[in-house]
Design goal:
This protein is an all-alpha fold. It folds into three domains: 122 residues, no CATH class; 98 residues, no CATH class; 64 residues. The protein is built from 13 helices and no strands.
Length: 302
């Protein structure tokens, strides 16, 4: 037998969609699509303050949990390779999500400013405006960055936390603060409207040294994350979302190294189209720094 042919038979087939892959691997693609749909519907409900969309998003999230449960049970049973229907669905979802990711990047990096400055009004403009806000620091990101600066300056990050000055310093958005059921909002249920939040924020800006009790102003989570951020900020990184991205890429690289070669491309494909992950980094979600640490811990147990 030709040596090259023998080598080809033993070499793992590094495909994104190998036919011998287990069903659970391809169900991840379906889970990603369902999660994105749930987030989109719930996000529209939040932006338009529409209860129907909220309920719809909740129902889709329940479906997402069902799929995750099916994946867990499937992996536990160590079932055989995936059916042709599930594999084909995963392939279609992969290419759709890749296209959506490229389109989203183009829209919000190239077209967003044009849409917002057009002077038009309507649902599309409101949605773009809300998503544009999402790509700024939120209150949690601003507080984490402030805590890091305080730590590097030798101040207690928890004692000197101030959400008002943090959002102002890091150019955050006032509609991405966390209201509490205290003070003026004590009897507001389930959530204050935009006018109520704006009124409290304007009062807070008038006296930024004393954060109002209606706004969350504590460095709450991830606890102690400023310790991980501080070396990078000390080196000159001005946007901590870049640090989150570095941690995620490092965690994914470790996972690719640890995963058996025949499944590496499936993992890479799932990571590429996990738009919720990349959006959470762009949105400044502080939990993004936990994700790679969980991956490393999980794979290290194996």
């Amino acid at each position: 037998m030709n040596r090259d042919n023998a080598s080809n038979k033993t070499r793992p087939r590094l495909y994104f969609f190998p036919q011998e892959a287990p069903r659970g691997a391809y169900l991840y693609y379906i889970a990603i699509a369902v999660q994105l749909l749930a987030s989109a519907v719930a996000g529209v409900g939040f932006t338009l303050n529409n209860g129907i969309y909220w309920l719809g998003g909740t129902a889709i999230f329940i479906l997402w949990f069902v799929i995750l449960f099916a994946i867990a049970m499937d992996n536990r049973k160590e079932s055989g390779k995936s059916s042709k229907t599930i594999r084909t669905s995963a392939i279609i979802i992969f290419y759709i999500l890749v296209a959506c990711g490229i389109a989203s990047f183009f829209i919000f990096s190239v077209m967003a400013s044009t849409i917002l400055n057009s002077g038009n009004s309507g649902t599309v403009v409101e949605l773009v405006k809300q998503m544009d806000h999402n790509y700024q620091y939120n209150d949690g990101t601003a507080l984490c960055h402030q805590a890091t600066d305080n730590f590097l300056a030798g101040r207690n990050p928890y004692e000197y936390a101030n959400v008002v000055t943090a959002v102002q310093q890091f150019h955050g958005s006032s509609d991405r603060i966390t209201p509490l059921r205290k003070g003026q909002l004590a009897n507001v249920f389930p959530y204050p409207n935009d006018n109520q939040i704006e009124e409290i924020w304007n009062q807070a800006v008038a006296n930024p040294s004393q954060p109002p009790i209606e706004l969350e102003s504590q460095v709450c989570y991830p606890a102690g994350s400023f310790l991980l951020l501080s070396p990078f900020v000390a080196l000159g990184i001005k946007d901590i979302r870049i640090i989150y991205l570095l941690f995620v890429i490092a965690g994914l690289a470790y996972a690719v190294w640890k995963i058996p070669p025949k499944y590496r491309f499936i993992f890479i494909g799932v990571a590429l189209v996990s738009l919720e992950l990349w959006n959470s980094i762009a949105n400044g979600e502080t939990g993004a720094i936990v994700f790679p640490l969980l991956i490393v811990a999980w794979l290290s147990l194996g």
